Amino acid sequence: MTREERQLREAIIAKCRWMNASSLNQGTSGNISARYEDRMLITPSATPYDAMKPEMIAAMPIARDDGSWEGPLQPSTEWRFHLDIMRGRPDVGSVVHTHSTYATVLAIARKPIPACHYMMAAFGGNDIRCAGYARYGTAELSELALAALEGRNGCLLANHGMIAVGANLDKAMWLAVELETIARQYYLSLALGSPHILSEAEIADTAKGFSTYGLQQPKASKPKPGRAGASAKAAARQRVEKKRSRT
């Protein structure tokens, strides 16, 4: 195991522990995967996060879909949709699956989330779809999840939970948090009545703004005090020296 791979395995475990400590997930119901070269690293099945060690993370070849794996423990029972997402979405470097409370409540009600907040733009469209129901760990569930994720970075799973995907582990976890946050906001706004939903144009405008969000423009350098005057004096001295050399 290379140092880079070990660090990624340790990061997966750290994210698992954090999402439980932050109540984004409960027990061992969630699972996380990350792309490493030609393999997918994924949390093992039914293993408490506090007891998890880097060597316990299962490794699965992305090119194969027969469920083959390496490691002392079997991969998560949800390995199928993790692997299929990695195979079908080269842009995805990590997948986070949780049973977060508000996202799961909406999934139980089979309610997709409309553009109730401008942060919906971070998910690639103007809604979060709710995939149909299929038993956990099945190829059918994977197919339903892939359809719900088309053009999106997150979805709900009917009567189950949610999925968030990102270019890397940090981005996928950030989107998982955002998805649960939007789910909570939508749920609470429904309690007040009919929430106002943003238009496709408004979400598209936000997405355009995201393309430059966080890019810092370098400040124009200011001349140091006295610098301009010193340059002028130096030029004057040069002119005087030239005149003297001619005489």
Descriptive account of the structure:
By secondary structure, the chain is α+β, with helices and mostly antiparallel strands. The chain has a single domain (3-202), classed as Class II aldolase/adducin N-terminal domain (L-fuculose-1-phosphate Aldolase). The chain is built from 7 helices and 9 strands. The strands form 2 sheets. A 7-stranded mixed sheet has the order 3-2-1-4-9-8-7, with helices on both faces. β7 (130-131), α4 (139-148) and β8 form a beta-alpha-beta unit. It is globular, with a radius of gyration of 26 Å. The N and C termini lie far apart (79 Å). The mean pLDDT is 90.
List the total number of helices: 7
Q: Biggest sheet, strands in spatial order?
A: 3-2-1-4-9-8-7
Distance between the termini: 79 Å
Q: What's the gyration radius in Å?
A: 26 Å
By secondary-structure content and strand pairing, the structural class works out as: alpha+beta
Q: What is the beta-strand fraction?
A: 5-15%
GO molecular function: aldehyde-lyase activity; metal ion binding
Pfam family, one: Aldolase_II
InterPro entries: Aldolase_class_II_sugar_metab (IPR050197), Aldolase_II/adducin_N (IPR001303), Aldolase_II/adducin_N_sf (IPR036409)
Biased composition (Low complexity): 226-237
Summarize this structure briefly.
The protein has 247 residues and is α+β, with helices and mostly antiparallel strands. Helix content is 41%, strand content 14%. A hairpin with a 2-residue loop joins strand 1 and strand 2.
